[in-house]
Amino acid sequence: MDVKHGESVAILGPSGSGKSTLLGLLAALDSPTSGSIKLDGVALEELNEESKASLRKQKVSFIFQSFMLVDTLNALENVMLPAELAGVTKAKEKAEAMLERVGLSHRLTHFPNQLSGGEQQRVAIARAFICEPKVLFADEPTGNLDSANSDKIADMLFELNRESDTTLVLVTHDMELASRCQRQFIMDSGCLSEKPSEQMSAIKGAEEASAWS
Amino acid sequence: MELSLAWRLFKRELSQGQLLLIILAITLAVLSVTGLASVSERLQMAINGQASKFIAADRIIDSPAKIDPQILTLADKLGLARVGSMQFNSMVYAGDAFQLVTVRAVEQGYPLKGDIELSSGKANGLPLADNIWFETRLGGLLGYPEQIELGNANFNLSKEIIRLPDAGFNPFASSPVVLMRIEDVAKTQVIQPGSRVTYRYQFTGDTSQLTAFEAQAKPLLNTSQRWVDVQSGDSPIAGAVKRAERFLLLASLLGIALACAAIGIAAQRYCQRHYDVVAMLKTFGASAKQIRVLFGTHLLLVTTVGVLLGLLGGFALDRGITAFLPIEIAAYTPPVGRPIMLGIATGFISAFMFSAYPLMRLLAIPPLRVLQRQLEGLQLGMWLHLILSLGAMALLGYLYSQSLALTLTVVAAVLLLGTLLSVLGFFMIRLGHSVGMKTTNPLQLALAGLRRRAKQNAVQLVGFSSALVLLLTILALRQDLLQEWQKQLPENSPNYFLVNIAPEETQTISDFLAPHLKSSPIIYPVVRGRLTEINGEELISNAQKQEGSEGRVGISRELNLTYQSSLPPNNEILEGEFNQDTFDVSVESGVAERLGLSIGDSLTYTIDHQPLTVKVTSIRAVHWETLQPNFFMIFTEQALAPFAYTSMSSFHLEDSQRGLILDLIKQFPTVSIIDVGAMVSQLRQIIDQVSLSLSLVLVLVLLASALVMIAQTEAGMATRQRELAVLRTFGASGWLLRAATGLEFALLGTIAGILAVVVAEFTLYLLKTQVFELNVYMHWPWWGIAPLCGGLIVALLGIWRCRQLLNKSCGELLKGH
Asked: Where in the cell is it found (chain B) (predicted)?
């Protein structure tokens, strides 16, 4: 599997097929027992925990199905968090701008439990983009949302992705969301195969299973 | 950055009430340490202060000759107040009458503590030159003369002494006391080379001065000089004070242990709550150092707030208790440094050492938890947690009590409880391995719940049982100590002593007193004699021993010997049988030990220049604190019959009967009456004060236990909610769930109760044998009461804590976090 800079890629597959495991490996959250993963030219399997953390800080960001906001911090503080960890100056101003960008400038001081699911995920999106990551990993970003909110979140995600020229790796089993990505991969029982684009023949099927290196 | 983030997290969590439990736990630990330390320091000062009035000083050096001036220079350098005096026996004459008296010749400044009580009230100053103050009965003995002759000088008899502050309690001091200025001694020319004189040097100062003085002066003393302080065992108060002090320490120590348990549980909860935050921070690239600094700072802030609140609370506690104390005690202001330092140390040591293990686990949370929620990172060895927690407890215990025995006892109790709990937890998990929730009836459901939460329950039991252990231990010990004291000083302890009763007066005095007393007084004949030989081997003096003589060292003074036909009250035979034959003697155990006596040894006394040889047939323990006449040696009447004797007795009179004493003085002018009522009431007061502080400690302990229990149920709330949600969804009735929850907690409480009794009995055994010297016995009623009460209290508390969950609708349960 090879993902180019600025591409958007969806990984599809049934529950338990290994999508999240793959995401963990690609995002330098986990270490492979064999094989090799290169992220922006760096071989992940050669890094220790600290270097992986530093790499994540500089190049990677995340959006989760369950939002993963810190309950005790308000929207603004949640968005500031990664920027502060990375030592970005003017983190507050940037966070305010990001929240305005996702339409939540009136919700800055609200706590997660005071926000709807859609709003929480918008906060998470703002948080994901504040450090201008090279790669954004999204794990079922619309999985916990109703269809209207799902669409809004998806629009926002792809728009921001385009604007900031970020590479997007998205794990989902929502076909519609996956179809908005430039490329689609299918994960099945630990095997990954790229789904040909719609213009290409559907017959090619999934047998072109290829291991990635 | 981490600092500002830590501050922000702290601020937010504080305002949302999430840190309440851990802060409360720290506050309580600090509060109890600071508060109790100040109170006990105040009590200690007051007790010592009052007791030191009995020796009219804080420290005394008694010496047969003038002491090394170096010691006095040292005292001056350290800023101690001091006063010297001489004591010797001499004859005084008034016309044809003469009497042996004990002369106290004192320097200006005497007494350093307490007052000289005169018949006209408290004395102001000392006798003028050429004047003597005299004990009331001397007047009677000499026929109330205006002047007396002492050696080569004449003195005016100016004022009557009721009591000297350092007269001590010696009913055998049969010669009346006179008080004069030390400058007047020279002109009497009574003191010649070889005269028997006791030089007494009294010192007062603050604790640090006295400690320094003791450290430097004591080594300069020789063996014939004696160092006396309030606690050196001479005063009957010393024993009571020491035990009370140790009890107060122990109670606070156990209180600290419990507060530590609360901190431990709260810290675990605190760390669990942050698992997701740490995983998230790591995902966004936080380095290990950043997270360490972040949570280190966070915990530091939490601890600081807890410590500050605790110090304030401790201060308030001290104030509160002081307000209830009598003014004589409240007037003492102990230095605040030690309680504050102890409080701060307790807060930080307990917060950080008890949090260390949960914190390590927190820091080890893998970032992958954001995707796989069940991940908890490294399972570090529990032994580490155990070592750290026990270490913290032992360190704090030792810092606070400075007593290894107490500290080790507490640690041993904690270890036993821990072992029992792990065994129990293991069996609960192994034996309870059955499938399903068993939702048929509440008991089944409760049992299933217990098994399912076996591991968590083992932790919960720590809290419940340690709180119970503590309560039981404190209650039992308090009861035993109070009883012990009551036994020593029953309501009608003797408050008057009669000495110098002539043989022919014995019966008349007995008849005189009998109608006014509840029981006729025991009259003890007193014969003075010196122990000269043991098993035919002559005894030597201390001085001879030092000069290199071989032999056993005897008692250098004359002893008071008595005879009784049966064993007097407050005496207990340890070995042998009480006097059966004429030449049997019963020996007090302390003396027997000092002289190396055992049953069958023969003792030879010299009485009136005549030898008397007797055989040791019993060894007795004597309760010296009882204020009854007590004797080292008790003979048979036949053995002492040939010798001259006077008698003594003691009895109790109510205040309303005081008039009787005046009649007694009139009818029996030669009998000396010693009023010890003041001393008895002082003893009682001290015991009351200590009891009060004990009750306060109990209240604190109860607070700490409640906190632990709340911390415990709090920890299990989230899983319980999920379970209730599922059971509710599938149609379990509200009644079933309430009954099952109640029963589950009740069972837990019952188990805790049983464990607590086992550990409490063990702890009490250790404490009574190693620390308090009390009788060990089993508390059988506890074995029923503790499990019952444990079950009831924990069930009520559990239902109360879960009432919101139990009242929630299915939808609310499913939605809730």
From this structure: Cell membrane
Q: N- to C-terminal Cα distance for chain B?
A: 30
A-chain CB neighbours of B18 within 8 Å are: 72
Instruction: Provide ipTM, 2 decimals.
Output: 0.84
Q: What is the pLDDT of residues B199-231, one digit of tens each?
A: 999 998 888 888 899 888 888 887 778 787 765
Backbone φ and ψ of B540, nearest 5°: -115, 165
Report the mean per-residue pLDDT for chain B: 79
- Give per-residue pLDDT as tens, A178-191: 888 999 998 888 88
pLDDT at residue B53, as a whole number = 62
Residue numbers of A between 42 and 101 with CB closer than 8 Å to B: 49-50, 53-58, 60-62, 64, 68, 70, 72-74, 77, 81-82, 84-87
Closest residue to A56, CB basis, from B5, B16, B284: B284
Chains A, B: CB pairs < 8 Å: 81
Contacts of B569 (CB under 8 A, 6+ apart): B522, B628
Residue B42 and residue B322 in contact, taking contact as beta carbons nearer than 8 Å? yes
Amino acid A202: pLDDT: 42
Interface test with A, best of B292, B370, B372, B378 (most A CBs within 10 A): B370
Q: pTM to 2 decimals? A: 0.66
Strand, coil or helix: B448:
helix
Nearest to residue B29, comparing CAs of B224, B257, B339? B257
Q: Which residue in this structure is represented by tokens 């025995």? A: B405
Question: pLDDT, tens digit, for every residue of A139-160?
Answer: 888 888 888 888 888 888 898 8
- Count Cβ atoms within 10 A of the Cβ of residue B814 and give its class: 0-12 exposed, 13-18 middle, 19 or more buried: middle
For the cut 50, the answer to whether the pLDDT of residue B171 exceeds it is no
Helix (H) or strand (E) holding B580: none
Judged by CB atoms closer than 8 Å, whether chains meet at A62 and B18 is answered as no
Give the one of A64, A74, A86 whose C-beta lies nearest to B370's C-beta.
A64
